[in-house]
Amino acid sequence: MNIKQSERVSSFVRITILVAIVSVYSFLPGRNIQAETIQNLGHHRNIYEKLEKNGHIPEEGIVPDAETAIRIAEAVWLPIYGDSILEKKPFVAVLIGEDWFVYGTLPSPPKPTVAYFGGIPYIRIRKADGKILGVIHTK
Fold first, then answer.
1. Do residue 85 and residue 111 come from a single domain?
2. For residue 130, is it within any domain?
3. Alpha-helical segments (H) within the chain
4. Which domain covers residue 33, as residue numbers?
5. How many whole angstroms separate alpha carbon 105 and alpha carbon 93?
6. What's the structural domain count of the chain?
7. Paired residues of 132 in beta bridges
8. How far apart are the C-alpha atoms of 83 and 120, rounded to whole Å?
């Protein structure tokens, strides 16, 4: 077998392995969760579709108070930044117009001459429907 034939066989083997992996992956559960779940909702499907068109929104909004805004912020920040985000407590929530602005705090330095380096998390949440409008963490 010459070098060109060896390269062709090697390429064929790589392609065959790739096709096998893709084939196995396509049979794994959860590969297209959204489409499969919607199709398999059964009698819940009507409610799902109704919520998409005209679900009930409370008059005070989905995020009515600072405590709820902080809980949502933590739920969003934890998967993004990990448990270290909890070191930025206490969290502060301020309603500005129709949006909650939630942010963390840095600890007070033990001495006036000591400075802390690092940033804090910020999130903006729409009060009416709970939509996350932005998430950042300063450095």
1. yes
2. yes
3. 3-26, 33-39, 45-54, 66-81
4. 3-54
5. 11
6. 2
7. 125
8. 13
What is the value of pTM for the model shown?
0.65
What does the alpha-carbon distance between residue 130 and residue 73 come to, in Å, rounded to a whole number? 10
Tell whether 60 is covered by a domain.
no
Tokens (6 digits) for 24: 């196995």
Same domain (yes/no): 47, 23: yes
- Name every residue whose Cβ is closer than 8 Å to that of residue 3 and which is 6 or more positions away in sequence: none
DSSP β-bridge partners for residue 95: 100
120: nearest Cα among 134, 133, 107: 107
What does the pLDDT look like over 13-71, one tens digit per residue? 666 665 555 554 445 555 555 556 666 777 787 777 777 777 778 889 999 999 999 99
Are the C-beta atoms of 121 and 77 separated by less than 8 Å?
A: yes
Indicate whether 17 and 43 sit together in one domain: yes
> Are the beta carbons of 85 and 78 closer than 8 angstroms?
yes
Q: Looking at the structure, do residues 83 and 129 belong to the same domain, yes or no?
A: yes
